[in-house]
Amino acid sequence: MATVVLEAKNRESLGTGSARSDRRNGFVPCIVYGDNAAPESIRISKDLLSRYVYKSNFFSTVFEINGIGKKGQKFIAKAAQIHPVTDQVIHVDFMRVGKGSKVTVRVPLIFTHEADSPGLKLGGVLNVLAHEMDVVCDPEGIPEHIEIDLTGFEFHHTVHSNTVKLPEGVSLPVNAKVTTIATVVAPTVLKSDAAVSTEAAETQA
Q1: What is the pLDDT of residues 139-156, one digit of tens each?
Q2: Cβ neighbours for 190, distance < 8 A, ≥ 6 positions apart
Q3: This prediction's pTM
């Protein structure tokens, strides 16, 4: 995954009044911490940050933040506060990532080969209970997403977090709870074989 570069400035004063002033002037107050260094209060352009904060992979993106700390320092976002009415980003927490360290990140899930699922062909519905999952990996090896192959899925086939095939170098957090990711739910009325054959023919046409 490519590193995203953000430009930042140190915040000259802290407190609620200062944060409001930053927001009025088009900046988002942020804090960076971790890697055995003192926390730093910074501000980043709202327009720049808004390009990334609403994306599904925001928390699995590696950032470089120019204007603070040592050059080349890597960061990942750990929390983002969104205004409940305006839906604008109003604060972000970034964590420094040390060289050789492992990070826990939340990665989007995508489902592939729906056409190769017998259960879905017969009118079943894929009930998705989780659209992302936490994994542990090197910062340089954070996957953009994790694929779940639906080939062969029959009715009531269920995917659990501990059965998801993870990329090399990626693992589940230690002591992570097993959660249900998705299941193929049977329809009230099954499609007929003729209907399935017709759909298959239309797909190949």
Answers
A1: 888 998 999 999 999 999
A2: 122, 123
A3: 0.74
